[in-house]
Amino acid sequence: MVSFVVRFRFSQEDRAEATAAVALLATESRREPGCVSYIPHQVQDDPDTILIYEQYRDPQALEAHRETAHFKKYAIGILFQKMKDRRLENLIALV
């Protein structure tokens, strides 16, 4: 299992577009056969920050996700272009 959290920070004027892109990306990503979980969040005390918790069956499923048209359209084409910064945290399950 591959699990991670990615945290994006956007300017206030890009917040609505980023939120819409994340919603579309989540819908499409959840349909992928190797996607176990894809849960976007807005940080409660920081509305300009979006956090996405993702799980994939294996590294190949994650690589397949990154090659999809929806990842390229919404993540690379919108989120990566609008973000002020991005942080990726790879996770290891304890149990």
Name some characteristics of this structure:
95 residues, alpha+beta, Alpha-Beta Plaits, 4 strands
Structural summary, described in words:
The chain has helices at 15-29, 59-66, 69-82; strands at residues 2-10, 35-43, 46-56, 83-91. It has one domain: 2-Layer Sandwich (Alpha-Beta Plaits), CATH 3.30.70.100. It is α+β, with helices and mostly antiparallel strands. The protein is globular. Helix 1 (15-29) runs antiparallel to helix 3. It contains three helices and four strands, in the order E-H-E-E-H-H-E. Strand 2 (35-43) and strand 3 form a beta hairpin. It has a four-stranded antiparallel beta sheet. It is 39% helix and 40% strand.
The first-level CATH class is given as Alpha Beta
User: SSE order in H/E notation?
Assistant: EHEEHHE
What proportion strand?
Answer: 35-45%
**What's the Cα radius of gyration?**
13 Å
Q: Could you report the average pLDDT, rounded to the nearest whole number?
A: 97
Please give the largest β-sheet.
4 strands, antiparallel
Distance N to C terminus: 12 Å
CATH topology: Alpha-Beta Plaits
Instruction: Describe the strand arrangement of the main beta sheet, using strand numbers.
Output: 2-3-1-4
Spans of at least 5 consecutive residues with low confidence: none
Q: State the CATH architecture.
A: 2-Layer Sandwich
Structural class: alpha+beta
Q: How would the global form be characterised?
A: globular
Q: Helical element count?
A: 3
